[in-house]
Amino acid sequence: MTARADAEQWLADHEIQIAAAELRRFVQVWTDLARRYPDSEDAAVRDAALHAAVRYIGGYLTPADVGKTLAKARAKADEAMAAARQVAVMAVDDGAPEATTARDVGVDRMALRKWLGKR
Q: Where exactly are the structural domains of the chain?
């Protein structure tokens, strides 16, 4: 299939209709994102970018909108990191192995050691 056909199929699969004049721009975006996120495990990220592109092309999403969303997501990520760090430090203080704790929290052991004040 061609990039245009793939892009049109994606739009149809997601029940999205865009004006014919906007389709050319969307196909360009589709092609760029297919290169940037080529793997199947990238599908959720690619779809998020495609949905944002459709909303932007249609005039429903601005850089300020996505900036606000990103700021909120970063704040949530900071909160989650603080919670993970605190629990990991406390678990190691209570005798949990560093390697296991780091793996369970989803960080490398050196990050955990830094949290613990070790080098």
A: 3-61, 64-115
